[in-house]
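INTERNAL TRANSFER SHEET
From: sequence group
To: structure group
Subject: 7,8-dihydroneopterin aldolase

Please process the attached sequence and return the structure record in the designated field. Keep the field labels unchanged so the import script can parse them.
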Amino acid sequence: MKPDRIEINDLLLRCIIGINESERKNKQDVLINLVLWTDTRPAAASDAIEDALNYRTVTKQIIEYVERSNHFLVERLVERIAEICLCDPRALRVQVSLEKPGALRFARSVGVTITRTRADFGLKQTDAPK
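Return from structure group:
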């Protein structure tokens, strides 16, 4: 089975992120894009949210985490976002991209993209709850 994809695009949030003194005091914009791999067939067959990877719930968890976070490195923040996504047993794999607009002079943004699976966090590859 080739997994399906759920995409969440251009989630714009604010958080403390960076190593410079001003970055440690003032929240900055971060732009997040996610691709979640899952099997959408159970939800398609039942038309019931209980059978779906609920992207609204996952997004709320990410928003809550990011807005309270204060990491030094983008690499740490994207890793934590990936772990949050993969805590839903329906999520098989996730790609997280995070950009800091205006982080470098003459560049629109600087970003990091990672791809992680459940195994990367020691989570079992189990079936979704019935």
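Handover comment: The chain has four helices and five strands. The radius of gyration is 16 Å.
Transfer complete.
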